[in-house]
Design goal:
Bound molecules: S-adenosyl-L-homocysteine
Strand content: 25-35%
Distance between the termini: 64 Å
Radius of gyration: 19 Å
Order of helices and strands: HHEEHEHEHEEHEEE
Number of helices: 6
Strand order of the largest sheet: 5-4-3-6-7-8-9
Number of strands: 9
């Protein structure tokens, strides 16, 4: 057997397992969208489509890729977590993201929620307080081809005043109260979702709507998020 044939035979031998290993993720993702998200009432087509295409397994630590499509949050290091897929979908649908929107996220973590938003809206700004997570999220999003997400390492309490106002704000860490700078940076007609409450007790997901200068807050569901930290 000449070298060319040997190469072809060896390639064929090794191809199927590799193709299978990678090929399992889209069908797991599809099943996740159906059973964990659509069947639980998420209807927004843009949200469902975004979750269908973003490779969640690339946002979790390598030893957890096999669990990426399970119905739960997962650790991402530094005591932080990537939220449960349903919660990501729920929060995304709640802020009603639209094509031309500019959205702010506080708590970039793995960058997964930012990627979901970036599939739908024009520009995403996301802030992460843990430098290592922020740098990793920036690199990951860049490698995956997202050119409409900017990651800043900072305390998100102050928001991103240079880019304000935002059509929507998503906060993915639980604060004791809603940071006033974030309310100020919400556009008139804009929507913000934020978990509010003490880190070790039940927190409540709140919807904040700004309408002609009036701010209306609505309590939605009990949730559990990692604490909103303060400081550099
Ligand atoms: N949205 C993330 C989930 C991250 S968990 C994802 O899709 O993976 C919440 C994140 O908020 C953590 O990474 C935590 O470090 C970060 N965080 C906590 N307090 C913060 C603050 N004041 N400013 C910015 N990020 C903060």
């Amino acid at each position: 057997m000449n070298k060319k044939w040997l190469f072809i035979c060896v390639s064929i031998l090794f191809l199927p397992p590799l193709a299978l290993a990678d090929g399992a993720y889209p069908s797991r993702r599809e099943a996740m969208v159906r059973t964990q998200i659509a069947e639980r009432g998420i209807k927004d087509m843009a949200t469902l489509e975004a979750i269908r295409v973003v490779p969640r397994h690339l946002f979790v630590p390598p030893h957890l890729t096999g669990s990426a499509y399970e119905d739960r949050p997962l650790p991402i290091g530094y005591g932080q977590t990537i939220s449960q897929p349903y919660i990501v979908a729920y929060m995304t649908e709640l802020v009603r993201p639209r094509t031309g929107h500019k959205v702010l996220e506080i708590g970039a973590g793995s960058g997964y929620q930012a990627a979901i938003l970036a599939q739908i809206v024009k520009q995403v700004y996301t802030i992460e307080i843990v430098p290592e997570l922020g740098h990793d999220a920036r690199e990951r999003l860049h490698k995956l081809g997202y050119r409409n997400v900017l990651v800043r390492v900072a305390d998100g309490y102050d928001g991103w005043p240079e880019q304000a106002p935002f059509d929507a704000i998503i906060v993915t860490a639980a604060a004791d109260y809603i940071p006033p700078p974030l309310i100020r940076q919400l556009k008139d007609g804009g929507r913000m979702v934020i978990p509010v409450g003490s880190p070790f007790l039940v927190q409540t997901l709140m919807l904040v709507e700004k309408d002609k200068g009036n701010v209306k807050t609505t309590s939605l569901v009990p949730v559990r998020f990692v604490p909103f930290r303060r400081g550099p």
